[in-house]
């Protein structure tokens, strides 16, 4: 049953969290050995990191992926049952579900910013995180605080003293699941998804924007049965060992989030993938529409989006469609917007919606940071062919705007998982300079040197650190780093002219970062950091730590 919103843009609604209604009868205590929430948070992160699969395990999982994928959602439902999270609880979150390859996070961020602008209490679930794992679970645009994260994570209990008896009831996610599913603990992402649902329910958010992890059909976020609207962002080649090597195969997985009678909107794609989206929508009785170009909307004033790059306008259009469709389904008024406009068509964009688009921030995507050490960082977590092409175009524009054509340019690059360095790094060879409104002129981007390294922040692993990533071994990542520098060399017109001093490989992000800072002692440097969001996150972490700048 659809929940109707009252005719107001300022809503408050009591939590439907099952424990919250019982606090007057129960005494709540903490079983943690440490007293501070910060210490409990660090312990939470350590336990969470223990749920990561190591490189050898991941290789085996990929070999058995068909069987394991089919088990994923039934397992999720069992975990939710243990946590006493019902379908009604999930339905109360009024979810907007978003899959796709390129632009998922940005689309979700724009969607959240627009709805928050109208006074809604928002929840946003995305991945991966850049610096702190709490970034994945946001309330009103801000990462959930350490105290809430730690309390919901583990060592929470309720003592029931009614009828003269003492009864301990566990209510934290880790304690419940480890007690009832000790032999089959959920993996890292699945656990965080469960934790996010619990936090959103407890805090009584009024809308959740839920980003798919990988694919869609078998992704654990697809455990939801009744989202209000679904979106599919630009499709591209990624996670091919899991989703397939053809866009039609990838589209099949992405369309797996479609539900009966739930509207879905997709960003423009190629005919092969579009045919699959349409076919799957028909088989699921899903109303489907394509998001129009941004030129189809009537803006009340010119806008400068908070996330840079021309490619963002596709994400903005999709976010407009998701917001309007959601508002229509939930009977929530959007001042200045006609909800009767047909899905997939442009409409009037009022000033408050322009403000939301301009205020939206999404770190690690088309981000520019200047330090006091003569270094300008251009950071973009592009890791697919289309996103790398868009990254190169954006970097070219920034180099011109910042007047950095004549400074030394370094690319700090690494790719992970099953991604091929040569298919991505080729886009860094050229620079896009607009010549007319319809044509681009290509010229060298001007990269003087490549630096590569594993996406590990430091050479030693701290298992209680948010940045810890155990999914690939050190040897594998070092091998990939060597492939990256060789691919860059081979992409040059005359590879033989590229000397070894132009190709640097380090064992961790910190070592690479220190090298770049040393190089800046004698000259101004522009650094393009791309290829991996984990790499971008590590650099942001170090910039924040060493320069005390707020970067997230």
TrEMBL record:
Signal peptide: none annotated. GO terms for biological process: one-carbon metabolic process. It is an enzyme of class 6 (ligase). Transmembrane segments: none annotated. Pathway: Cofactor biosynthesis; tetrahydrofolylpolyglutamate biosynthesis. A monovalent cation. GO terms for molecular function: ATP binding; metal ion binding; tetrahydrofolylpolyglutamate synthase activity. This is Folylpolyglutamate synthase. Mg(2+) binds at residues 127, 211, 239. Catalyzes conversion of folates to polyglutamate derivatives allowing concentration of folate compounds in the cell and the intracellular retention of these cofactors, which are important substrates for most of the folate-dependent enzymes that are involved in one-carbon transfer reactions involved in purine, pyrimidine and amino acid synthesis. Keywords: ATP-binding, Cytoplasm, Ligase, Magnesium, Membrane, Metal-binding, Mitochondrion, Mitochondrion inner membrane, Nucleotide-binding, One-carbon metabolism. InterPro entries: Folylpolyglutamate_synth, Folylpolyglutamate_synth_CS, Folylpolyglutamate_synth_euk, Mur-like_cat_sf, Mur_ligase_C_dom_sf. GO terms for cellular component: cytosol; mitochondrial inner membrane; mitochondrial matrix. It catalyses: (6S)-5,6,7,8-tetrahydrofolyl-(gamma-L-Glu)(n) + L-glutamate + ATP = (6S)-5,6,7,8-tetrahydrofolyl-(gamma-L-Glu)(n+1) + ADP + phosphate + H(+). Its EC number is 6.3.2.17. Belongs to the folylpolyglutamate synthase family.
